[in-house]
Write a structure and sequence with these properties.
This protein is an alpha/beta fold. 35% of the residues lie in helices and 18% in strands. It folds into two domains: 2-229, Helicase, Ruva Protein, domain 3, CATH 1.10.8.470; 322-396, Beta-grasp domain (Ubiquitin-like (UB roll)). It has 13 helices and 14 strands. Strands 1, 2, 3, 4, 5, 6 and 7 form a seven-stranded mixed beta sheet that branches. Strands 11-10-14-12-13 form a five-stranded mixed beta sheet. A hairpin with a 2-residue loop joins strand 3 and strand 4. Helix 1 (13-21) packs parallel to helix 9, helix 3 (129-149) packs across helix 7 (203-217) and helix 6 (181-190) crosses helix 7. It is flat. Mean pLDDT is 93; it is low at 27-31. Bound molecules: guanosine-5'-diphosphate and magnesium ion (MG). Magnesium ion binds at residues 13-14, 33-34. Residues 13-14, 33-34 line the site of magnesium ion.
């Protein structure tokens, strides 16, 4: 599971990345700071089944705190895109290839409207964040169109001369982008074209199809960042303007500050929380105390920094992921070494039991007999999907 962070320069992409991963990627108030992609690991929350069991868990891949499991999600932060990037403006769009395997995108926009399309400072409120969502979507579509265009005519002939199906043609053209067959069918329905004659597709046809493919295969959520500088009513207007793309107001800077303060032992704060507690007011400088009070006001106005809600909203919403807990003993919920609920896996909702087994271990998939639900103790067949939060044992032939 990988999420790519995109947006124009200077909107807070790296700040968001750093907040979510608590790493220190280069951050500076000028455009094009990030050239090489930053890669890191964030985490999303889900209830840990150990609370039902009444026994503490032995987490391996996903930490557990107070009954909440933190399940890892990979993040990639790339350079800023500017309008016309596909024509070589700014840093161009080649770096988007670093996002090929991303399952979805977070687009960060400057909610305060104080950054122009090139990422240069502008008077607050002078720039419309909703327009940014439109043109950035177009730039992403141009990137996919560009992949389309490579030796297009030669490949198009396979459809026309050899009778290859258009679905297969598209799947082959875009193997690197991992477009699932369901997204390809959805895009073909949405962007009607002459299925039998790709060589007759106009540049417009190809672009429309690229856009439809992208929308169907790679969901996008918008972070209306720098919300600490605007009123909630402004955020609602922007949210309405970009719908149906989901939008969450965020203050990446507030989240980063709070996570750092938590790490330094200054505050008691858990990502996503609506508030925090100062551990020892006597240890804070006057400036620190004032900064924390300002953050308290941001949290009060917005309910949280929005950062955790943004990522979880994308993963559990449009990306339709669920968390499952594979175990080897369906009664004690342990693995072969007696560890309780050691692993938490993110899988697409409706994934058949056997496909999940393959994800956990090839042997489990190859020798799959049945799955057993750790709560109901019912057997599930290979094609049966697992429920969100399922504790499951895979029974194999040997
Ligand atoms: N007020 C405010 N400033 C922010 C926020 N997030 C980032 N910034 C500032 O915006 C500038 C650009 O941030 P950066 O993360 O480098 O942007 P990037 O170019 O999109 O990666 C820096 O000065 C950040 O401190 C936020 O939530 N609120
Ligand atoms: Mg950056």
């Amino acid at each position: 599971m990988e999420v790519g962070i995109v947006g124009k320069p200077n909107v807070g992409k790296s700040t968001l990345f750093n907040a979510l991963t608590l790493l220190d990627a280069t951050m500076a108030p000028y455009p094009f700071t990030t050239v090489k992609p930053n890669r890191g690991v964030a985490a999303i929350r889900c209830p840990c089944p150990h609370t039902e069991l009444g026994t503490p868990c032995t987490p391996g891949n996903a930490a557990c705190r107070n009954g909440v499991r933190w399940v890892p999600v990979s993040l990639v932060d790339v350079a800023g895109l500017v309008p016309g990037a596909h024509e070589g403006r700014g840093l161009g769009n080649q770096f988007l290839n670093d996002l090929s395997v991303a399952d979805g995108f977070v687009q960060v926009v400057d909610g305060s409207g104080a950054t122009d399309p090139e990422g240069q400072p502008a008077p607050p409120g002078s720039q419309d964040p909703a327009r940014e969502v439109d043109w950035l979507g177009e730039e992403l579509a141009y990137w996919v169109t560009g992949i389309f265009e490579r030796e297009f005519d030669r490949h198009a002939k396979r459809v026309e001369l050899e009778g290859e199906k258009v679905e297969e043609f598209l799947e082959h053209r875009f193997t690197g982008l991992k477009f699932p067959p369901s997204a390809i069918s959805a895009a073909l329905r949405e962007a009607p074209i002459d299925r039998d004659h790709p060589s007759r597709w106009s540049a417009d046809d190809r672009h429309r199809l690229a856009r439809a493919l992208l929308n169907a295969a790679k969901p996008r959520a918008v972070a209306l960042n720098k919300c600490d500088r605007i009123a909630p009513a402004r955020a609602e207007e922007t949210a309405a303007a970009v719908a149906p793309i989901p939008l969450v107001p965020t203050s990446a800077e507030a989240e980063l500050t709070l996570r750092r303060a938590q790490r330094a032992g200054l505050v008691d704060y858990s990502p996503g929380d609506p508030t925090f507690r100062v551990v020892d007011a006597g240890r804070l400088s006057t400036a620190q105390a004032r900064a924390l009070e300002e953050l308290r006001a941001v949290l009060a106005a917005w309910g949280s920094t929005g950062v955790q809600r943004l990522l979880e909203g994308l993963v559990f919403g449009p990306l339709r992921r669920i968390v499952v807990f594979p175990v080897e003993d369906e009664t004690r919920w342990t693995d072969s070494k007696g560890r309780v609920l050691p692993d938490a896996f993110l899988v697409p909702a409706d994934t058949p039991a056997r496909t999940v087994a393959f994800r956990v271990h090839t042997d489990l998939g190859e020798n799959f007999l049945r799955a057993i639900d750790g709560r109901t103790h019912r057997a599930l067949g290979a094609d049966h999907p697992l429920a969100a939060g399922a504790v499951v044992r895979f029974v194999t032939k040997r």
